[in-house]
Write a structure and sequence with these properties.
The structure is a single chain. With 671 residues, the protein is of the alpha/beta class. The protein is 39% helix and 19% strand. The strands form six sheets. It has a six-stranded parallel sheet with strand order 1-8-5-2-4-3, with helices on both faces. β3, α6 and β4 form a beta-alpha-beta unit. α16 crosses α18 and α18 crosses α19.
Length: 671
């Protein structure tokens, strides 16, 4: 079983392959020596037909294109690769943002990589497909993306820099085949030509393996612990023997038998095979136990999942991240510490730190509010800086960082949601609320210390003084919503000196759609001498002193249900459920966290997620009263999962009486 490579002669368009080796230990000088042979290959094999040059990095696209221009400058016609009038190209160049691309396009050479603005990429793609420019220098990812066949393909180097291992590694052979496969256009060419420029010591390797079949091996071992955790959570693996049996059904097991040496197995007899698989399972189980994802029962065979293991499986997170949570999450962490834990998650270990980006990271850190203690060439440090820059709406150093930020933001919400669940399971009130605040920050691209008025479109810090009600300054969104109500004119009067009418209208539409919730609370449960379950409505008046407030009598050491009724006062249409999150890449519906806790003890008693409230919604939070009689004040936090500044809190004052066996029995009977 393997991936088979077919000889060029069997292709619909036969492929002629040339492989050339270049000496030199250092990567960059070796790449420079390949530039003239690349130019000569185009002159020889594709003087007037489209040519693709594949390189390993965005920097190499620029350097290669500039060297091509220097060789063209020595020719009688330096613009021989440009196949459109100069005036038309000047008009195209006028709309290009990238400085290097502006220069190269004038000579009929395009560059293409993920760091370009999307509009620039589209322009280059259109020019090359329509044969307005003859040469395109691109990173290898283009081979797997958009289909741009050419008459000639030059693979300039078969190595790339791996930021994780901090060294140059070979492209997978499949990538080289894919790049070669772009040579030859069935509708235009009788044959295609591929020129592979490699390090001289690898020339014979590529000659051999480009045409011979090679096996596809399994990568399961790298993530086996996470797969086993998911199967244990799902209940399909309940014992160590189940785990071994599970492995025998995988592609990894098939390859293990066929190619045991690849997986460090010497022999495939039954004894060796069982010992090897059992060793793998034992290693993964030890790892998962250390991460607090699973536990082994007293019989030393049965495997059961722990809460954090369920959370990791539910959110598709690594057991390494569970380990980070276990070691770094604490009861009193604040917003900054939560962001640090978030950036240390294993999911951010793959964020690339490219050549010389440690210097860029150091410079970026100077403009951000939270200082960095770790090395600037760490992926996790870069993730921390990117998340800070997002919340600060800070200008990033270059387009590469914008791409990296998008990758970081794609992961951020599920990691934070898992953090909320871990904090709630531990009963940590402060940690849970801090994590919810970070979720709000990520959606709004703001810090908790920023004014919530900055949620409105076009509003910046220097605009805040315009929001006033008479002589009184308006400090937050709820105050502005109460002042403006449904009157567009009131908002217009405040903003007319600093904004044009269209901007004011956009701000009004966002303000009108922000959720205004009315909250009613009842406590449901059993009391002594009552024949049926009771439901008591709680009155909320924050202006009253503690002595005058309604103190609800409840029994000690008993389960009650806090029923929370949410009514949206400004009712929404079905089409208006999307929250206002212009700086978040994905659409988001409004949602809420209901968090019940005791402030004095910093203990979280219950947490519930509530989906978008269109009209009315009811949720129940189950809590247990303390074991001894006393007075206790529980606080319900109604927290937006999207907006900063719209949170509410309500005190639930309890006068805890001695426990009642009869009431406890009725409660247990109901459950």
């Amino acid at each position: 079983m393997g991936l088979f490579n077919f000889r060029p002669s069997v292709r619909p368009v036969p492929l002629e392959v040339h492989i050339a080796g270049f000496p030199g230990k250092n990567y960059c000088p070796r790449m420079a020596t390949m530039n003239k042979p690349t130019y000569q290959a185009i002159r020889t094999h594709s003087p007037s037909k489209p040519a693709l040059i594949f390189v390993s990095s965005r920097r190499q696209t620029r350097l290669t294109a500039l060297d091509m221009i220097s060789y063209l400058a020595a020719e009688d016609n330096p613009r021989q690769w440009l196949h459109m009038p100069d005036m038309e190209m000047e008009h195209v160049i006028h709309g290009i943002r990238d400085a290097s691309l502006k220069l190269t396009l004038a000579f009929g050479i395009g560059i293409h990589h993920a760091g370009l603005q999307e509009r620039d990429r589209k322009v280059v793609e259109e020019l090359f497909v329509n044969q307005k420019i003859q040469v395109l220098v691109a990173t290898s990812t283009l081979a797997w993306g958009v289909n741009f066949p050419a008459h000639l393909v030059v693979v300039k180097g078969t190595e790339y820099f791996d930021g994780k291992t901090k060294r140059y590694v070979d492209f997978p052979i499949t990538d080289v085949l894919q790049m070669m496969g772009r040579a030859g256009r069935p509708q235009f060419d009788n044959q295609g030509i591929a020129v592979i420029l490699v390090h001289d010591i690898k020339k014979h390797f590529y000659k051999k393996f480009l045409y011979e079949p090679f096996p596809v091996e399994s990568s399961l071992l790298d993530v086996l612990a996470d797969h086993l955790n998911a199967e244990i959570v799902a209940g399909t693996v309940c014992t160590k023997q189940d785990a071994v049996d599970y492995l025998t059904w995988t592609y990894f097991f098939r390859r293990l038998i066929v190619n045991p040496s690849y997986y460090n197995l010497e022999d495939v007899d039954n004894v060796s095979l069982n010992r090897y698989l059992s060793s793998l399972v034992e290693g993964c189980i030890t790892t998962l136990i250390y991460s607090s994802c699973i536990k082994v029962e007293d019989d030393q065979r049965t495997l059961t999942t722990e809460t954090i293991g369920r959370i990791m499986s539910y959110y598709y997170l690594s057991h390494h991240t569970a380990c980070i949570f276990k070691e770094q999450l604490a009861a009193e962490v604040g917003v900054e510490q939560v962001m640090q834990i978030l950036s240390n998650a294993h999911e951010y270990a793959e964020i690339p730190v490219r050549h010389n980006e440690d210097g860029l990271n150091s410079e970026l850190a100077k403009h951000l509010p939270v200082q960095v203690a770790d090395s600037f060439d760490s992926s996790h440090t870069k993730a921390f800086l990117l998340l800070q820059a997002h919340c600060s709406r800070c200008q990033l150093p270059n387009a590469d960082y914008n791409t990296d930020l998008k990758s970081a933001m794609d992961q951020v919400i599920r990691i934070l949601q898992a953090l909320v669940d871990v904090a709630a399971d531990s009963g940590w009130l402060v940690a849970a609320i801090s994590t919810v605040q970070v979720i709000q920050m990520m959606y709004q691209a703001r810090w908790t210390s920023d004014s919530s008025l900055l949620t409105l479109p076009h509003v910046d810090v220097y605009h805040l003084p315009c929001f006033r009600a008479g002589s009184k300054k308006i400090d937050c969104l709820p105050e502005l919503m109460a002042t403006v109500g449904s009157s567009h004119d009131r908002l217009f009067t405040m903003m007319k000196d600093d904004f044009d009418p269209n901007q004011i209208e956009q701000a009004y539409q966002v303000l009108r759609q922000l959720p205004v919730l009315h909250v009613n609370l009842t406590v449901k449960g059993w009391w002594a001498n009552k024949e049926r379950e009771q439901e008591v409505t709680l009155q909320h008046n924050p202006e009253e002193s503690l002595l005058k407030r309604q103190w609800l009598k409840v029994h000690a050491d008993q389960e009650y249900v806090l029923r929370v009724s949410l009514a949206r006062l400004n009712r929404m249409k079905a089409s208006e459920s999307r929250a206002h999150t212009p700086h978040f890449s994905k659409p988001k519906d409004e949602g809420w966290f209901l968090v019940l806790g005791e402030v004095d003890s910093r203990q979280l008693l219950g947490l519930k997620r509530v989906a978008v409230v269109r009209n009315k919604s009811t949720a129940s939070v189950v809590f247990c009263t303390p074991p001894t009689p006393r007075r206790a004040i529980y606080t319900l936090y109604v927290l937006s999962d999207t907006y900063l500044g719209l949170d509410q809190q309500y005190d639930v004052c309890l006068d805890i009486m001695p426990s009642c066996v009869e009431a406890q029995g009725n409660t247990e009977g109901d459950s």
